[in-house]
Design a protein that fits this description.
Thiol Ester Dehydrase, Chain A, five-stranded antiparallel sheet, alpha+beta, binds coenzyme A, 30% helix
């Protein structure tokens, strides 16, 4: 008999949650200056990150927080946009997801990174209550760096949300005390 509990809690690598979503910026996706509307990009980011979180834990997931989003370069109409999402750390029921956004040069195929977003998702049961998620085992240098920083980002997010006292954020405080 298949042990579903075991399948769900087996630690996973970030590559196992990799989710790649490619979109084209159509006229309806642009703002008043002809660039990709930020809200549209956030929709693509949220969906791509949700699929990555779901691939990691095999559960229904919800967005708990959008921790960071940067719009580093405008994205023009007709651009081909690729979003790459991976789980960067798993806690008890929550997961941090990193989304890297690239624009593709149609002539050369070369990709330029133009945005980055970090989100927190939570696995839930049929009643909306949080469920445990598998641990994450980083492999590459960048995965390890993101894994290491995730605890501080989680503490900052919980402080902003009024869910944690600043004095309890030991790892975040240590960043300023060096
Ligand atoms: C997210 C949600 C399930 C959390 O439920 P809750 O009853 O507050 O549960 P908890 O307090 O146990 O928090 C669950 C986890 O979320 C984390 N979390 C909650 N808010 C967070 C925030 N702002 N930043 C980072 N992590 C957060 C907690 O730290 C906890 O993580 P852990 O289990 O890994 O330690 C609940 O608030 C919810 O359903 N929110 C609405 C989600 C939604 O509708 N999203 C948009 C559409 S998908």
């Amino acid at each position: 008999m298949v042990n579903f509990a075991l399948i769900h809690m087996t630690p996973k690598k970030p590559s196992q949650s990799l989710t790649i979503n490619t979109e084209v910026v159509l006229p309806n996706d642009t703002n008043h200056v002809g660039n990709l509307f930020g809200g549209k990009l956030m929709q693509w980011v949220d969906i791509t990150a949700a699929i990555a979180a779901q691939r990691h834990c095999g559960r229904v997931v919800v967005t708990a927080a959008i921790n960071h989003v940067s719009f580093d370069n405008p994205i023009k109409q007709n651009s081909v946009v690729t979003l790459e999402a991976k789980v960067s750390r798993a806690f008890s029921s929550s997961m941090e997801i990193y989304v890297d956004v690239y624009v593709e040069n149609p002539a050369t195929g070369a990709k330029t990174k133009c945005n980055e977003a970090i989100l927190t998702f939570v696995a839930i049961d049929q009643n909306g209550s949080p469920l445990p998620v598998p641990a994450l085992i980083p492999e590459t240098e960048i995965e390890q760096k993101r894994f290491d920083g995730a605890l501080r980002r989680r503490q900052l997010s919980l402080i902003i949300a009024g869910r944690m006292k600043a004095e309890d954020a030991t790892e975040l405080k240590a960043l300023f005390e060096k």
